[in-house]
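Quick one, probably user error.
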């Protein structure tokens, strides 16, 4: 095998440290890839695979390679990141012209799905999160960061941490996850990250060591000790936050002081929503298409700025639990709702504001260009106009926004320095405004008017010497010279002329002035570019040093954008302001589904009322035919609650919403083939999780529990679940329970708090007409055959089904009825079987008193569920 060249040895040494990355190795104007990296890049990017070892006879020993131009590498990197690869950028760290021997190189950054900062790789209205997860037994913590904006938050959970962390992952949807050793072993966690979220998983290695993590958190966020951070009693959160910071530092290798605010949230601040609920309610994307259109966010999002779009998404994902915070938002929305002119002017101004959060982020890590600084100044120029429109605001939230920093000093610095239309590149000049630097202006004059200056010097020398044929010339060997014909005579040559070259008929000279002009002319272009870049980086650093102020202003602008969006949506769609309190009452008058009504513009949406409380109306059993709108009705109730708790007006004539701690839905199901679970098993798992985590303050939306098994088994399970939900001693949560088991309607009057409702439908001329109206009472028919006919089932089959139905309806009704029992069996009673089995198997004659007491305590624990 041929001996390795110095460059190949250098490449191999760097590659050995970054085995999990594709190495972009800078050679001149290209990023080159070699060996297996080259093969992967060639395949994924459709690049030609070549080699430099053409002199090597054996093709197997040739080094495969491919490359991309450095100035267009971003597009290629974006494609690799989208395909799930990590890319290490290896740059030349010294000027090749000054290097002695091999140019030194090192990896300056690692780009992965969760650490992307380039605007071309990011979605404007969506945050790009990376997370870290740490588990210790039943406890655990998680931290999340959007590097592009500096947002950083973490949470800790004292029990059942895995379940809660999975819910948080569903909320943030990170693109990359750093896992501790214990977290990495949890299949439920890794499966969710890979299969549900499509996230890249990184091994945490030794990054989760507590003392180092605590020190890093304190250093990054400016705490004297970890107790001041709010994380002192939560070691899992400390480890998660510290490990995430360490990973970011290790991969980005640049200043991250824009990550300067730690948002710690434990129970009580935001509503926790599980993955199934987010999907079934279609909060941010359609369940069918996976796109924003068809979701609640699609309806509400009228934002005009990228950071406003991201914040509104966060509001939808994180409804509030504080009545005070909700009312504060609602009062601001109401003020904007009532003032159409002010709202229109504000939204028009907001259109002129770019993504301040990501712009200042790029300033901090040194990748912002002249256009980015120009955008920051343009944004700042809009801020005084926004404040002028907000003058006289009455609500507390709008008053807090009015107090935002208008960044006048930063705008003045940028306006004075950066020209109106700076070039894309920051190293090729043309960025600074004329007048900012005398030296830059002088060098530009030299660069752009060098020929005129040479001509002026030539004219001056002719006048001084009286030699009319004197010329100033230039060649690459001697540079600039003064050419004098010999016929002019030696006595006409000034004393300061220094002989440079003698020709047959001419003498060539130079002067100190000509030499200085030559030096200025030849170095002007390079010097002006270097000087402009130095001034530009100085200005960029000034902007970066004010990151706290810019982020605070960006946050205020984003809040204003969200409030205007909610107010505009309320006006366009005819929403009303809900009354939000701490009662257990849910009262909705003429409520509508916010998404469905926007999707059926040609057909009026039929509004319906909802009333639930914690006394006589805890459980609403909803019956009616398929396609009549049961699921839509229940979903709209859940969405109205979520909208109210995020601070939005709601699609209803009137609404009172007592704050719920969580919303659970069990609507629809499908086989989970990846984990080998049937539809029924998925349904039961979701139901079990709901009953495990729901409280009396929760809202439960349960659709057709028990439908995935035999009729009697399903009916028994449905009744047991319903009784458990209604029983105030066991749960007592507000519950909407849709079912086709009409026998369950007999529970009204038997179980306290249960009410029957049905969606009306009627037969007309042999056809089924859905009236879509919810009325009290149970449905008198399922209309299953009529629905089958509407679906297009052949008439012969429909007729045969009708005859079979008559035969079945003539059978003994006692066999179909669900027997009433004085002591109903619910899910929490299942431990009774285990208690009985244990007692039957135990020989009491052989038990010691201590063993008997221990067994009695264990049996009592099982009996209590």
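Nope, works fine. Designed sequence:
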């Amino acid at each position: 095998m041929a001996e390795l060249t110095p460059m190949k040895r250098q490449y191999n040494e760097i590659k050995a440290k970054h085995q999990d990355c594709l190495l972009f190795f800078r050679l001149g104007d290209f990023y080159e890839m070699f060996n297996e990296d080259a093969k992967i890049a060639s395949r994924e990017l459709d690049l030609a695979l070549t080699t430099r070892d053409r002199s090597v006879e054996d093709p197997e020993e040739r080094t495969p390679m491919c490359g991309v131009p450095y100035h267009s590498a971003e597009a290629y990197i974006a494609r690799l990141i989208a395909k799930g690869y990590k890319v290490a950028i290896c740059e030349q760290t010294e000027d090749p012209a000054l290097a002695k021997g091999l140019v030194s190189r090192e990896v300056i950054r690692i780009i992965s799905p969760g650490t992307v900062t380039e605007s071309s790789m990011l979605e404007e209205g969506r945050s790009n999160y990376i997370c870290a997860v740490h588990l210790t037994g039943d406890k655990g913590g998680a931290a999340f960061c959007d590097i592009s904006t500096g947002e950083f938050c973490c949470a800790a959970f004292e029990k059942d941490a895995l379940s809660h962390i999975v819910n948080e992952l569903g909320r943030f949807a990170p693109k990359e996850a750093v896992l501790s050793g214990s977290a990495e072993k949890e299949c439920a966690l890794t499966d969710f990250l890979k299969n549900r979220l499509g996230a890249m998983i990184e091994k945490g290695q030794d990054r989760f060591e507590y003392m180092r993590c605590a020190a890093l958190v304190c250093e990054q966020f400016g705490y004297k000790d970890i107790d001041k951070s709010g994380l002192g009693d939560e070691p899992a959160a400390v480890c998660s936050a510290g490990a995430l910071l360490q990973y970011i530092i290790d991969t980005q290798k640049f200043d991250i002081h824009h990550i300067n605010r730690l948002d710690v949230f434990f129970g009580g601040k935001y509503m926790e929503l599980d993955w199934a609920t987010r999907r079934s309610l279609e909060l941010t994307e359609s369940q069918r298409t996976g796109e924003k259109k068809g979701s609640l966010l699609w309806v509400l999002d009228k934002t005009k700025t990228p950071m406003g779009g991201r914040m509104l998404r966060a509001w939808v994902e994180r409804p509030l639990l504080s009545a005070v915070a909700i009312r504060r938002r609602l009062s601001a929305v109401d003020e904007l709702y009532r003032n159409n002119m002010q709202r229109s002017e504000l939204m028009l101004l907001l259109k002129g504001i770019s993504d301040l959060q990501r712009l200042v982020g790029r300033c901090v890590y040194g990748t912002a260009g002249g256009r980015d600084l120009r955008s920051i100044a343009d944004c700042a120029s809009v801020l005084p106009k926004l404040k002028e429109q907000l003058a006289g605001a009455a609500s507390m939230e709008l008053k807090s926004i009015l107090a935002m920093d208008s960044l006048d000093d930063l705008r003045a610095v940028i306006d004075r320095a950066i020209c109106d239309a700076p070039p894309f590149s920051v190293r090729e000049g043309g960025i600074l405004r004329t007048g900012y630097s005398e030296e830059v202006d002088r060098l530009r004059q030299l660069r752009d008017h060098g020929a005129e200056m040479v001509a002026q010097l030539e004219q001056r020398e002719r006048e001084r010497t009286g030699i009319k044929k004197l010329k100033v010339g230039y060649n690459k060997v001697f540079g600039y010279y003064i050419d004098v014909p010999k016929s002019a005579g030696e006595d006409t040559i000034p004393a300061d002329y220094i002989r440079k070259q003698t020709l047959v008929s001419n003498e060539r000279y130079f002067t100190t002035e000509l030499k200085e002009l030559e030096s200025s002319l030849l170095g002007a272009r390079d010097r002006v570019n270097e000087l402009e870049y130095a001034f530009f980086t100085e200005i960029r650093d000034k902007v970066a040093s004010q990151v706290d102020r810019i982020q605070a202003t960006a946050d205020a602008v984003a809040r204003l954008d969200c409030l205007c969006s909610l107010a505009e949506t309320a006006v366009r769609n005819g929403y009303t302001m809900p009354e939000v309190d701490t009662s257990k009452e849910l009262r909705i008058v003429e409520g509508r589904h916010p998404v469905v009504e926007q999707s059926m513009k040609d057909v009026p949406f039929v509004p319906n009322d909802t009333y639930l409380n914690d006394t006589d109306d805890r459980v609403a059993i909803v019956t009616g035919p398929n396609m009549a709108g049961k699921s839509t009705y229940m979903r709209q109730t859940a969405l109205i609650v979520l909208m109210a708790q995020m601070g939005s007006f709601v699609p209803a004539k009137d609404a009172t919403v007592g704050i719920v701690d969580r919303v659970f839905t069990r609507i629809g199901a499908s086989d989970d083939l990846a984990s080998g679970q049937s539809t029924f098993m998925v349904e039961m798992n979701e139901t079990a999780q709901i009953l495990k985590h729901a409280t009396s303050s929760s809202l439960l939306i349960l659709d057709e529990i028990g439908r995935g098994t035999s009729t009697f088994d399903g009916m028994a399970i449905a009744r047991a679940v319903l009784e458990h939900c209604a029983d105030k001693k066991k749960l007592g949560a507000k519950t909407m329970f849709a079912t086709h088991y009409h026998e369950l309607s007999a529970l009204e009057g038997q179980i306290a708090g249960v009410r029957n409702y049905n969606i009306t439908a009627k037969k007309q001329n042999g056809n089924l007409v859905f009236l879509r109206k919810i009325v009290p009472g149970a449905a008198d028919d399922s209309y299953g055959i009529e629905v089958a006919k509407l679906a297009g089932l052949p008439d012969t089959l429909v007729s045969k089904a009708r005859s079979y139905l008559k035969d079945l309806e003539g059978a003994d009704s006692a066999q179909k009825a669900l027997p009433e029992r004085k002591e109903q069996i619910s899910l929490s009673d299942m431990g009774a079987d285990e208690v009985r089995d244990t007692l039957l198997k135990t020989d009491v004659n052989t038990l010691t008193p201590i063993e008997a007491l221990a067994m009695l305590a264990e049996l009592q624990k099982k009996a209590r569920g």
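The chain is about 45% helix and 15% strand.
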